[in-house]
Design brief:
By secondary structure, the protein is mainly α. The protein contains 16 helices and four strands.
Length: about 425
């Protein structure tokens, strides 16, 4: 390992990022208010509100502990020469650059997953269990993990092998890598609802009745090509609620968690649907895809410029340059920039949520149903009603519920 400019940049950047995250977490905890915010007295009783605050504290402490462990683990592995040792070990198999790359990256992925798995287990069976959210058995957890590893092998390894081959043998590799990754991402988004999601959850057509009729009526009113409404058995893993859209063109589907259906009235569910349709009508999904594709292109361009950078390899103690190690080191190097891009993406996402809320209020004729749905969701998920603005700025993809309600009522500052 050589202490050069790359070494100092990465160490300083990662430490600063951790410090910022830690500081904003402290601010978030200090902003917790002992009193139920005005306007939520009809939703949160004193006991539920105290639970929401304790849940916020528990998740914050857990998040800090996990981030400290991950950062220390990375530094120890790096400073003990782990990257160089692993590369030498992989090269000993004499399997060629592509297979060596798959082994190198695969070992790092599996090792990190296994080492951090106790945190995931405690998160689910400790914190989520304590607050009544977890409904997952340990057997189901292990089955999910096995399926995840299998999908990573079946889907991830071929695209990784293709990227390694492209940068090994094709001129203008960054451009071809960008195109291949984009095409693969679009294909995955198309097939995931029918081939991948059913591996984890059961999707059944929504039963005929008032809810189904009202949903289709709202879709027709909004000129939204809704083909099918399904109910997903989210309750086998958690009591938390959600809904999501899938599909392209005239093949659009909506999936409602069974927990969402059980906890909300028909007007509230229709308002949630209208909100999701608002994302479609405001072209948020298309904008997000375009931004994601362009960002991927920039990253591949930078990757091409940084490929097999000798100084970067020296900083990580890797003797021989290679495409596969370059991919890993580039990912580490880009982490600070990824955080910055994430903050920008979160800001855009919060703007889109406000716009989708406004659309839902407009097409339903009044905001009360959406407001009621947001209040119920915040109670059922034990949401923090008083997050600190700095924490929201860095981490929230959705505006805090009080801000969304104020906007719906036209009382936002």
């Amino acid at each position: 390992m050589q202490i050069n400019g790359w070494f100092f940049f990465i160490v300083i950047a990662l430490v600063i990022l951790w410090k910022v995250d830690y500081f904003t977490t402290l601010l978030n905890l200090k902003s917790l208010s002992p009193e139920v915010p005005k306007g939520f007295e009809d939703t949160f009783d004193a006991e539920t509100y105290e639970q929401s605050q304790e849940y916020t504290r528990s998740r914050a402490v857990f998040g800090v502990a996990e981030s400290v462990f991950s950062l220390v683990l990375f530094f120890v592995f790096w400073w003990l020469g782990g990257f160089g040792w692993l590369d030498s070990w992989v090269r000993g198999f004499n399997q060629g650059p592509i297979m060596s790359g798959l082994i190198f990256i695969g070992v790092l992925y599996v090792a990190f997953s296994l080492v951090t798995m106790p945190f995931q287990i405690y998160s689910i069976f400790g914190i989520e269990e304590k607050f009544g959210f977890n409904k997952m058995s340990f057997g189901l957890y292990l089955a999910d993990q096995a399926k995840g590893y299998l999908l990573a092998a079946v889907i991830g390894l071929p695209i990784l092998a293709l990227i390694l081959w492209i940068f090994q043998a094709v001129p203008h590799a960054w451009l071809w890598g960008w195109g291949a990754t984009t095409a693969f991402s679009l294909l995955l988004a198309y097939v995931a609802p029918t081939l991948i999601l059913p591996l984890f959850n059961k999707f059944e057509p929504l039963e005929d009745g008032e809810l189904k009729s009202e949903i289709h009526a709202m879709a027709e009113k909004c000129d939204y090509p809704l083909k099918e409404v399904t109910q997903m058995d989210g309750s086998k893993r958690s009591t938390k609620s959600n809904a999501f859209f899938t599909g392209f063109g005239n093949n659009k589907r909506i999936a409602l968690f069974d927990t969402l259906i059980a906890k909300h009235t028909v007007p509230e569910l229709v308002a949630v649907l209208a909100h999701e349709i608002g994302h479609f009508k405001k072209r948020h999904i298309v904008k997000g895809m375009v931004i994601s594709i362009l960002t991927t292109g920039v990253l591949f361009f930078l990757l091409g410029r940084m490929m097999e950078n000798r100084s970067l390899f020296d900083a990580f103690g890797v003797e021989q340059t290679s495409v596969y190690v370059s991919l890993v080191l580039f990912g580490i190097l880009m982490q600070p920039f990824g955080q910055i891009l994430g903050v920008a993406g979160n800001a855009l996402s919060r703007k889109h949520e406000f716009e989708a809320d406004a659309y839902a209020a407009k097409v339903t004729g009044e905001p009360d149903a959406m407001i009621s749905a947001l209040k119920t969701l915040s109670k059922d998920n034990l949401s923090n009603l008083t997050p600190h603005p700095a924490y929201v700025f860095l981490n929230y993809t959705h505006p805090p519920v009080p801000e969304r309600i104020a906007a719906l009522r036209g009382t936002a500052p």
